[in-house]
């Protein structure tokens, strides 16, 4: 099935600033893995997580894997710091600067303000921020010349997931909820709803999306796997859904617990990583996952910086450059319709060609 992409390259971005960023995008990261060196170099790569931590089985973990792989190939050791909450972002960055870091990778839009402040104060240090444009004044440009944003138009891959969910559902009700209503969260929900609606119009099957109306919806108020996330998932389960997309790092764990408690057959859709691989404990529930190439995007950026080739141009992951995509159906291969894989292949090609338009703040 072609829509299952390989791991290749890779948002607090304001909608009206996206077009300017896209105009200057870098090419897709190279997954050749041949940029390493046998000789130790004078280069110190560093990373700060958001409050999810490096074991979130999602984007923090993927970023950690990317910097670790690059550091190994460069013959150096990465310094990595976990943040327990938002009050630690700025102090963690200051600490890494003081320790002589040449490149600092910050994981997630929550670190945007702290990253811009640190980069502005330390122009000789190079920065990479994952899932954010570092455009806090919303003028369509990165706020410091030494920051490279790595962004993902996940609406495209989520569109495919929505189409698959609409094809799979038997209750004709599917649901989604997020951590907080930020662009990097709602972009998944937007694409998912558009994909469901597209399937309905193309196939004459009335499928309802609950939890997101295109503007607002169900949110937990944070990104922790807790009772609030479980209650939010349960509220959607009570509306007769049989497919659920939680968007917000580890909140999927609470959704999985609610699904198991329900005793019903409800399929889960993962985000960021192929959750079937990162968290096998929920593998039996996963229809698919909406992937971002965070690991390889981070690897590429760190490797380039270590080789003296840091490029601050923003990178936008799309279906075309394989920065985003669907994970395999894994245990659900035998449960999906025979026609779905070919339909998704054709749909992906239509999105890439522009025949099918997927709207997102990164495509405007």
Walk me through what this model shows.
This protein is of the alpha/beta class. 36% of the residues lie in helices and 15% in strands. It contains eleven helices and twelve strands. The strands form two sheets. It has a six-stranded parallel beta sheet, with helices on both faces. A six-stranded mixed beta sheet has the order 7-6-8-9-10-12, with helices on both faces. Helix 9 (275-278) links the parallel strand 9 (267-272) and strand 10. It is globular, with a radius of gyration of 20 Å. The chain starts with 17 loop residues before the first helix and ends in an 11-residue tail after the last helix. The relative contact order is 0.20. The model is unreliable at 1-37 (pLDDT under 50).
Summarize the structure.
The protein is an alpha/beta fold and about 375 residues long.
CATH topology name of the largest domain = Rossmann fold
Q: Tell me what the CATH architecture of the largest domain is.
A: 3-Layer(aba) Sandwich
Report the structural category: alpha/beta
Compute the average pLDDT: 89
Strand content: 15-25%
* Main sheet summary: 6 strands, parallel
Task: Name the helix and strand elements from N-terminus to C-terminus, one letter apiece.
Answer: HEHEHEHEEHEHEHEHEHEHEEH
User: How would you write the strand order of the largest sheet?
Assistant: 2-1-3-4-5-11
CATH class of the largest domain: Alpha Beta
- Tell me the helix content: 25-40%
